[in-house]
Amino acid sequence: MNGNELSIAVRNCLAEFTTYSEELGDLDQALGDGDLGITVSLGAAAATEALDVLSDGATPTEVVLACAKAFANANPSTMAALVAGALLAGSRVWGDSPTVEGDQIGRFARAAAESISQRGKSQVGDKTILDAMFPAAEALLAPAAGANALDAAIDAAERGVVVSKELQSRRGRASWLQERSIGLQDPGATAFLRFLQSWKSANASATAS
Amino acid sequence: MNGNELSIAVRNCLAEFTTYSEELGDLDQALGDGDLGITVSLGAAAATEALDVLSDGATPTEVVLACAKAFANANPSTMAALVAGALLAGSRVWGDSPTVEGDQIGRFARAAAESISQRGKSQVGDKTILDAMFPAAEALLAPAAGANALDAAIDAAERGVVVSKELQSRRGRASWLQERSIGLQDPGATAFLRFLQSWKSANASATAS
Amino acid sequence: MKKIINEPAAFVDEFVEGILLAHPDLLKAPTADRRILVRADAPVAGKVGIVTGGGSGHLPLFKGYVGRGLCDGVAIGNVFSSPSSAQVLEATKAVSGGAGVLYLYGNYGGDVFNFDLATDMAELEGIRTVTVLGRDDVASQPKERAADRRGVAGILFAYKAAGAAAERGDSLDQVAAVAEDIIDNTATMGIGLSPTILPTTAKPSFELGDGEMEVGIGIHGEPGFHRGELETADQIAESLTERLVADLGISSGDRVAVLVNGMGATPLEELYLLFRRVHQLLTEKGISIDKNYVGEYATSLEMAGASISLLALNDERLALLNTPAESPFFKEA
Amino acid sequence: MKKIINEPAAFVDEFVEGILLAHPDLLKAPTADRRILVRADAPVAGKVGIVTGGGSGHLPLFKGYVGRGLCDGVAIGNVFSSPSSAQVLEATKAVSGGAGVLYLYGNYGGDVFNFDLATDMAELEGIRTVTVLGRDDVASQPKERAADRRGVAGILFAYKAAGAAAERGDSLDQVAAVAEDIIDNTATMGIGLSPTILPTTAKPSFELGDGEMEVGIGIHGEPGFHRGELETADQIAESLTERLVADLGISSGDRVAVLVNGMGATPLEELYLLFRRVHQLLTEKGISIDKNYVGEYATSLEMAGASISLLALNDERLALLNTPAESPFFKEA
Ligand SMILES: Nc1ncnc2c1ncn2[C@@H]1O[C@H](COP(=O)(O)OP(=O)(O)O)[C@@H](O)[C@H]1O
Ligand SMILES: Nc1ncnc2c1ncn2[C@@H]1O[C@H](COP(=O)(O)OP(=O)(O)O)[C@@H](O)[C@H]1O
Ligand SMILES: [Mg+2]
Ligand SMILES: [Mg+2]
Ligand SMILES: [Mg+2]
Ligand SMILES: [Mg+2]
After folding, report:
1. Of B24, C36, C263, D221, which alpha carbon lies 20 to 30 A from B207's?
2. What GO terms are given for molecular function (chains A, B) (predicted)?
3. Distance B28 CA to ligand 4 centre (A)
4. 3-state secondary structure at position D272
5. Domain of residue A151, CATH code
6. In whole angstroms, how far apart are CA D236 and each of D137, D149, D223, D271?
7. Cβ pair C222, C256 in contact under 8 A
8. Chain D closest CA to C54's CA: distance in Å?
9. Tens of pLDDT, residues B31-65
10. Range of the domain at B90
11. Which ligand ends up closest to the CA of D112?
């Protein structure tokens, strides 16, 4: 994928992703403050707008940076700040490379997750986005034999979402619920899963590797 | 009636009168601020308590003064202040007289109405208690031939209440409603009517003249 | 509606106790029933005293305006109901410093008749009083009957100016003239979005449909002259401002003080939305805002709604507003 | 619930414009988007700057605490949502007087991550910053995890004290130490009676049955640790006070500052009922109240409810609280 192809794929994906805003808002209503739907819809719109005006010759890293900046400022929130930082960290993996393929995707994902872990002082098991992200990054890097990498990542993220449902939140707003957080599904982890699913259905051909 | 008889008659009347609190509160809700029910129930209770501890040898004037003071302080309001002033003015007609009869009642009522008119800068037709009170006082002073004075007063007050319903309020809270006050029944005038009716039904024998 | 209260009947006594516990350096209660609050240094010898009063449920009105450069004392009624004449008299005696006492309060029948009774009683005690009534609510009566209007939030201006005049040593008649002048030049109008619930009756003061507002509402939930669809902040600011400007007869070149007052439940953010539009409108008209107050100054328990007051200014009135004052609820430095 | 607003999306921009129009002598907006407010005299050369910030909808928090002896600037987010790191950076630059800048705000993920980003960016501009987080809400985490508690109304104490320290010329590390000391000794707990409605979503922040209250609620309507029957004012004051006293570990002979804070729709009268009982309880325990604040200091739009904050005092802390300060929303003489 070159920058232009990535930019188109991202916009396709975001158009689908925003349809989950309400679901994500409702999950965040139960476990947090209900604004994740707004973060997602405003953030996706801002990123799409930013890509619409980006030059066709932009590198993949420039595409990601434009998204990061737009997403960070659209509705600044925990998710917006963590995701923006994660995109920055991921793009460092790519450097000036004019195209990205194969395990550059997985390495991007892992760097992104590590950035969130560091900034958020959080790890797998804290019931956050990381419970979906880290397993998905691993799956992208080392898909089970014969499996499509994206499908494997989606499966891994989904398992992460399901498993973390029974955990007690240890980070962010949800942690204030203490024991009451057990049994509720993490909105951030769900958002990551929905993002992967959107990528798949919006870009079925482009991303099958 | 001597002071003790008057005191008993007043207490009998007030016990009945308070049963109208809700009706009066509701009328005042529509045309004013809804507190007339409280003024009546607290005021009647305070007056009754004051009479309970008044000596049996009190003059009619002392009985009235005790009521006036109790009523004025129980729930100070327009009605409380005007009625207290009216009772004071009425009792001046009686002076130290140990008993009151015949047209002393009507003269009391007229002096009371005049006091309200003066303090309230109001007159018949302004849609206030006076629309019931002045005609009732006149009826007490000059009942139609053969009629019972109290019944005549009740009839006159009732006509006042009905007629004033169609008038626009010109005094007090209700006047702020301007044209919207037309068609609504004045709570103060109604209170006076209910007071007379309570007197009649609670003291049927004592007051038949 | 839910309330953080104890026995409804004890509501007033208990919150007054709370006020006294919180501000013992600024306020004191001279009678055992604590239904009167006066400045901690009352009576101030040689100074005109100012007594206000009325029903409870309007904090910071009325109790909040007792302090240096404001009123000297307040007689405290039950929720939305007048203090008694006996209480007004006690307040009068407690603040009388020998120069007479101004009665400054809102034009409500119950209050008027009880203060009037107190006037007679004070005279017997040798204290001269003069009464000036707040009557700024333009919705309550047409201009021709302005003397019969009820008093609402705009009385703040009169407290401030009369308090400053008394503090600088004006005579009773001068202080009364200042109050009268301010009130003659003050106009207020309010809107209500939701009712208030009296602690004792637990009934709403009025009923209003979803999406409706009451225009011209009073601070006890008295109906206004129009009930209609809820408008935007800008539309509300426009219709109220136009009406107030017309009532005061002010125009380009004039100066005003503006008070945007919250009735209780309305967020401060929304009051600033109103102020913004008032400022734009007056600026367009060439009328300058030389003083403003935005916040809760006269409430109606938990009623949602707001009022806008304008005071036409001249140098003297502005100087009086800008004089230092201090109460636990109001400070002007 | 009904609101006095215009376009929901313009809510924040418009009320900030209103604040600027009302207080041009005290506040200014250094950027074109007006999402930053700073003291009119910022930057003050040689003085440590204090920047706060967070979501809107909490007036007078946070914008209300920008002024002399308080914070120097605020970065303004949308309703209940963080300002961006770019906005925080702008505020930092606008108040930097060469002595470094303290970031003092509530412990919320969105704010933390955005202020942290701004820290990195400020460093690139040669401005040193230190961060101190308000984390006074004892209901949000047990004592062992006190560092993870969220920040609520009690941050007022830290603004006041740190602002006073900066004004008297303390260094950045000293001002930060003052803020940290205050926050370590502050505990808050709140109850909610009704939700708040976000202008943009028009949805209630939570749902609560008739006659129910939420104990330990946050200022965005975050659930507390207990939902139960609405109690009396006295019972509420008792359970909150006991919990705060235990959390701070104070006892007979100790001194405190008390803040009884209204969340938006709760009448001031009810806050004084709470203060009354807090005063009685602390007095019984031999703990004296040397300073008190009763009113709306940190709200949640039109949410009904209240919080109680205690700050354990010593001479130094009390002296800082009593130092003069002035903003359009907060005055200490
Ligand atoms: N410290 C953290 N580290 C990683 N993820 C976090 C952290 N805190 C919160 N999250 C994630 O962010 C999600 C909530 O995002 P968002 O709604 O933007 O938060 P807020 O409204 O509190 O700013 C959570 O569901 C969780 O997945
Ligand atoms: N100026 C007046 N003169 C005579 N009667 C009046 C006057 N003003 C009000 N009233 C009477 O008082 C009644 C209302 O009494 P009340 O509820 O005590 O008044 P408020 O609640 O305004 O103090 C009215 O129905 C009317 O009959
Ligand atoms: Mg959220
Ligand atoms: Mg009434
Ligand atoms: Mg009344
Ligand atoms: Mg949020």
Report:
1. B24
2. glycerone kinase activity
3. 5
4. helix
5. 1.25.40.340
6. 16, 21, 17, 11
7. no
8. 15
9. 988 889 999 999 999 999 999 999 999 999 999 99
10. 3-203
11. 1
Asked if B133 contacts B109 with a C-beta cutoff of 8 angstroms, the reply is yes
Q: Helix B149-165 and helix B103-119: axis angle, to 10°?
A: 30
pTM for the structure as a whole? 0.93
Nearest CA to ligand 2 atom 25: B188
CA of A28 to the centre of ligand 3 (A): 5
Complex ipTM:
0.91
- Residue pairs between chains C and D whose CB atoms are closer than 8 Å: 159
Neighbouring chains of C at 3+ CB pairs under 8 Å are B, D
Q: How near does any CA of chain D get to the CA of C144, in Å? A: 31
Residue count (chain B): 209
Q: Cα–Cα distance between D143 and C69 in angstroms, integer? A: 47
Overall number of domains in chain B: 1
Instruction: Give a yes or no: residue A137 inside a domain.
Output: yes
Is the bond preceding residue C199 a cis peptide, omega within 30 degrees? no
- Do the beta carbons of residue D260 and residue D294 sit within 8 Å? yes
Q: Which residue has the tokens 């939570």?
A: D206
Which of D21, D83, D29 lies closest to D52 in space, CA to CA?
D83
Residues A112-131: pLDDT tens digits?
999 999 999 999 999 999 99
Give the DSSP H/E element, type plus range, for residue B205: helix B204-207
The whole-angstrom separation of Cα C329 and Cα C307 is 19
Closest CA relative to residue D29, chosen from D12, D45, D46: D12
What gap in Å lies between CA D75 and CA D82, rounded to an integer? Answer: 9
> Per this entry, what is the length of chain D?
333
To test the pocket of ligand 1, the residue of A127, A129, A169, A190 to mutate (highest count of ligand atoms within 8 Å of its CB) is: A129
- CA–CA min distance C95, chain D (Å): 24
Among B21, B26, B29, B33, the strongest candidate for a mutation testing the C interface, having the largest count of C CBs within 10 A, is B33
CA pair distance B8, D209, nearest whole angstrom: 49
Retrieve residue D275's tokens: 């203060």
D56: left (phi over 0), alpha (psi -120 to 50) or beta: beta
Chains sharing 3 or more CB pairs under 8 A with chain B: C
Token duo for residue A90 = 């991921």
- For residue B208, being part of any structural domain is answered with no
pLDDT value, residue B209: 44
Q: Which domains does chain C have, with CATH numbers?
A: 8-185+323-332 (3.40.50.10440), 186-315 (3.30.1180.20)
Measuring from atom 9 of ligand 1, which residue has the nearest CA? A172
Lowest mean pLDDT, pick from A125-129, A202-206, B18-22, D192-196: A202-206
In a domain, B38, yes or no: yes
Take residue A45 and report the two structure tokens written for it: 């719109």
Residue A17 β-bridge partners = none
Judged by CB atoms closer than 8 Å, whether chains meet at D113 and A81 is answered as yes
B124 lies in some domain: yes
Asked if C185 and C248 touch (Cβ cutoff 8 Å), the reply is yes
| Three-class secondary structure of residue A120 per DSSP | coil
Q: Return the pLDDT at B205.
A: 58
Measure CB to CB from residue C81 to each of B76, B175, B177 and give the nearest one: B76
Beta-bridged to residue C326, according to DSSP, are C68, C331
- CA-nearest residue to D290 within chain C is C22
